[in-house]
Design brief:
This protein has 10 helices and no strands. With 232 residues, it is an all-alpha fold.
């Protein structure tokens, strides 16, 4: 690993040693299962706007098609690579070095015109934590129940016997996650807690990097000289 660099020395939310160990343990399993693709896929399923944010251009948002798109594969790799670098530095570099990386990504987002917005940042955080820490068996069960609900909904629509409100498929995952999981239960407590703390500060620093760069550019524009053409 290269030298650790960080301009900042202190942060409020420091990770404990047992939390770092739990973060690493679940990450090893998650990255071996291409968690970057799972994170990006879930983000787009929940909020199709994420495809635009990540520069993924496709005529169809069908996941079987989308996962084959070059831009999808590239962005999934970038997500996983960033998280892998962040996790790999924990315990070896000051935690603020991770925050500096996130801050820099926020600055890059500004120059690329990528502004998630407050609500989508929360979605990004929750999806990442869930996909990394949730047991594979539970994720499979959620997907099965989601597919069953969609099939039942389609059959009801065909029969014209649907009663009550119609929920979009994109909302089903959130409902099932609420039904099937308790974020802080059992042996997964430390992993959930650690990843939640880590992603909280990562998202915070990404947002801060974006906003600070936006403000800096506004100040530079305000300081530009005003040329008069009156005497030209």
């Amino acid at each position: 690993m290269g030298a650790c660099t960080s301009r900042r020395r202190h942060h409020v939310s420091e990770l404990m040693d047992d939390e770092i160990a739990a973060i690493r343990e679940v990450w090893v399993k998650a990255k071996n299962e291409d968690v970057g693709k799972k994170i990006l896929q879930t983000l787009i399923e929940k909020r199709p706007k994420f495809a635009e944010y990540f520069g993924i251009h496709s005529e169809s948002l069908d996941m079987k098609v989308l996962v084959q798109v070059k831009e999808f594969q590239l962005q999934a790799h970038r997500i996983q690579n960033f998280l892998d670098t962040a996790v790999g530095s924990l315990g070896f570099c000051p935690i603020s070095s991770v925050y500096d990386m996130a801050h820099r990504i926020g600055q890059i987002h500004f120059y690329r015109g990528v502004n998630f917005g407050a609500e989508n940042w929360l979605v990004f955080k929750k999806v990442t934590v869930d996909q990394v820490t949730m047991p594979k068996e539970l994720l499979s069960e959620i997907e099965k129940r989601r597919e069953t609900e969609i099939r039942d909904l389609e059959k009801s629509l065909e029969r014209g016997s649907l009663t009550g409100s119609i929920r979009e498929p994109n909302h089903l995952n959130a409902d099932l996650l609420t039904d099937l999981t308790n974020s802080y239960s059992g042996g997964n407590y430390l992993a959930k807690q650690g990843w939640n703390k880590l992603m909280t500060v990562i998202v915070r620093e990404m947002k801060k990097g974006f906003l600070e760069e936006a403000m800096r550019n506004c100040r530079e524009e305000d300081n530009l000289p005003i040329f008069s053409t009156a005497n030209v």
